[in-house]
Design brief:
This protein is about 55% helix and about 10% strand. The chain has 13 helices and twelve strands.
Length: about 400
Amino acid sequence: MKKSLNKSLSVFLSVLLLFILCSCSKDDETSSESGQSATEATASQTDSVEPTTLSAEETANRKIDKMISEMTVEKKVGQMFYVRCPDSDAVNMISEYHLGGYILFGRDFEDKTKEEITENIKSYQDASNIPMLIGVDEEGGTVVRVSSNTNLRSTPFLSPSDTFFSGGWQAIDSDAEEKADLLLSLGINLNMAPDCDITSDPNAFMYYRSFSGYADKASDYVQRVVKISKNKKIGTVLKHFPGYGNATDTHTGIAYDDRDYSEFTENDFKPFTAGINAGADCVLVAHIIVNSMDSEYPASLSDKVHSILRNDLNFDGVIMTDDLAMDAITDYTGNEAAAVIAAKCGNDILCCSDVETQYPAVLKAVKDGEISESQIDASVKRILKWKSNLGLI
């Protein structure tokens, strides 16, 4: 009897132990499944989390990259051309050459009403798939394309130096604001100013266009104009890099500058640096041969000068040539080669009056591999970024 009881107890304990072990195993499985479900839920939640919001600059860059990826090489090359607005057929020329912009001169404003001018400019923008840069030289003084028309302003703008003489820095600020407001009201989004040149000789070509013969004063002037213009969302162009000095007129032939390089670093570069630090959009390069930088090529066609601007002055915006139809260039290179050389050495915008000759030459150079398409893409990206900053795209 006792032996039978012990045996029954032993069996009971064995069954109980087996039950406990099975229960633990199920709990572990449940716990594992529960943990796995929690992990999956967490992963699912992680997957559904929205990516970090892009900055305005990143969003703009993505938009620009997409635009470039969808452009033909013909349209890319066209964006690089900033052309003197022709007397006739201006609308058709835009689509034929996919132009990036028009520069307007006195003839485009003479005797016209504000309504006529704004309608003309609107017709140019309407004809373009990508909004155009519409620019003008409205420096004041001897260069007044717009304010010389009394329908637009009762008197022409004074020169920067005369403006300062009449009212100091407050007058300079008011002048920059009024110019921006007037140009924008007409549909013009780019003023080819401020002039950064330092000229000391009253007989020099650039004397009445420069603000001062002193680097620090010229730098203060440039900085103010750039900041005000940027706030107004009108484009600026720092000109004429690397500094015109007392050189002769490049409209009529090649000009030379024999000064030591130290004179540029200690004086002429300073207003450009001030403008760049203030956020200038574009730098225009002159057609002067500066022997201390490049004795072979005019600055506008010199990769050495462009390297100084990019690497020493740290400018990452748009580089523009002066008009490639000027005698200083045509006498030197021949018409057809000018824009090709200009593009190869690093200019983003090719300013010309003979797009019918220059555009096909650049397009051929790209298609033949003489100019890489990646270089064209880089230039177009800088141009479109400028247009984006101006609120055009």
